[in-house]
Amino acid sequence: MRLPSADYFADLMKAIHAVVDEGTFKITEEGMRLIAMDPAHISLVDFELSSSAAEEYECGGELQMTLSISEMMKFLKRIKKGESLTVIYDDQARKLSLILVDATGSRERTFTLNTLETVEARSTTPKLSFDAKARLNVDAVLDAIKDSDVVSDYVKITINPDEVVFLAKGELGTIQTKFSKMGAAVYEIETDTEVWAHFSINYLEKIVKAGSELSEEVIMNLSTNKPIKLGFPIPSGKLEYLIAPRIEGT
Amino acid sequence: MPETIVKSCLLCRGTRNLCGKEVCPQISYWNTIQKLKTIESYFIEAPSPPSVFVGRIGYPRVRVAPAVVPEGSNVEIYDMPEKWLNINLNEILQMRLSLLRACINVDVAKPEKMEDVKILAASSKPVDLELRFSKPPRPYIKLDVNSPPLGPAGILEKLRILGNPKIPKPIDRVLLDRELTATEAVMNLYSNSIPVSHIQKLFSIGVFGKAGFRKIVPTRWSITAVDSIISKRLIEKVKKLPVFDSYLFFERRHENNTFIAIIAPYRWSYEWIEAWFPYTTWNPGMRIEVEDDWEDFRGRSTYASLGGCYYAARLATAEYMIREGRQGTAILIREIYEGFFLPIGVWFVRENVREMFKNKPEKFGDIREVLERLSSSTRIQLSRWIKTSRLLTQILLQSRLEVPRL
User: Fold this and answer.
1) Mutual orientation of helices B169-176 and B182-191 as an angle, nearest 10°?
2) How far is CA A62 from the centre of its chain?
3) pLDDT for the residue B20
4) What ipTM was estimated for this complex?
5) Quick check: B266 and A245 CB within 8 A?
6) Distance CA A64, CA A53 (A)
């Protein structure tokens, strides 16, 4: 698989790393897919990159590749601007090669990583239905989450027909951010009722921050006291997350 | 006393002058009331447990101080906290304060200048020393949060090893190996059953690390460095173990302290909570002060706010899980009651938590039963524990994703 921008690939891996340290990719002719949960089973990432995202894509058949994302991130940090990336996986030797070539083609760097044994790969996500959907500007949402972090470890997210509200309460006081349906940060709200749930800021922040590197908008799907689905539209692919709520009375 | 002052004592513990006073009132109190006797001569021959203390004042020029026991028997245990749980605190204090130190000023980057000190620290049995002072020892005591209390000190002119040091084979091997990193050296000795206190002694005098990168490390820092290094490595193993299948509850009471451990049947996470009652070492105020710090499955990258105790208890917890072959979410609680007002060193936490984990745990199927059990053992109300503890709150309130198995 050859990608025009190595940076983009690094951002995608960072987005997966927001949830897991290691993961199993399912690779087919159509592209690569990964569904993985964090060890505490509080968050889940559902990632897909279609073969059409690549300038060149070749795959001999269906296979699985398990690797330490943390280890790979160490190398991806060394990427320079303008470099292209070719990813080659040797299933027999269980080795993944990442080849970086700079814009002028004068330097080629190859990083080979041993992959891990696949223990248990997940290919399903929980079946959930959502009562409300909202599309918002991702930076505005990230700001609201960071604000909440000032007073609390968790934040209540409410979606009603007119607005999306982030509310955090702590010993210091409360912080509330409201996004009105009329405002520039809200692209769409789709709901008849008011729904809400509380989420750990720790999880939310990591995920939304990673998503904000890849997408300008975040699609939130929510039902009261149920997991939230956060979707970040990316070209030729899919990046979605689930986070389980903290169960609170109100 | 205003709350800010109380709180800053808990965060400072005599090291950062957060209250604005030049000398910590808690420590100076003890410095002044203790009138110590000491020898007033330029020369002494006495056994060393062995003991070497490295100060942190003046870093990177620090004082390295081998110490001897001028009078007394059973010299061996004077510097071996692993053996102190059955001795009462006053005796430990007396024992420690009778240690006579001989100070040398050294640049931390030049540990190779101290060959004799190195041989001394490597020994597992007491070694007879001849100490010649340029200034006779002054009666003086030193109390520290992390390291055990220390007695009088003089300025060393010449040190001579009289007896035969007994150097355990694993230590000898590590000392000769100039390629080992400090972490590898620590883990090598630990897995060869060298006591943690001995590893810490060696760590502080700068004999670990690849040749050319070796440094002398103040005792205070080396104690926590070793607790942290070993527990970090153990946790990597713990995280691969199967999860406990029920809630476990441990309790231990010792010298005005209650220690409690709750282990929940989830993957590795760790939390350390201390509740200081009024008029205790780090809480001169009238209200109970509760502090906590924690890490999740991914660990932590910053230094824990509670310092040495956090890492000492983490080591004891990881050791327990390795022994059981299971991992869990551990919540450790310590209540410190009125009457416990000496900074005694983190060995007190490490050894008490180790001892606690030797007991048979009570088992529970439900977090609510565990909390009820907890409330019957602590003086602090359950609601305060729940409010303070990140991990208890998480267990109680955080839901988890349910994904159909393949």
Assistant:
1) 170
2) 24
3) 64
4) 0.83
5) no
6) 19
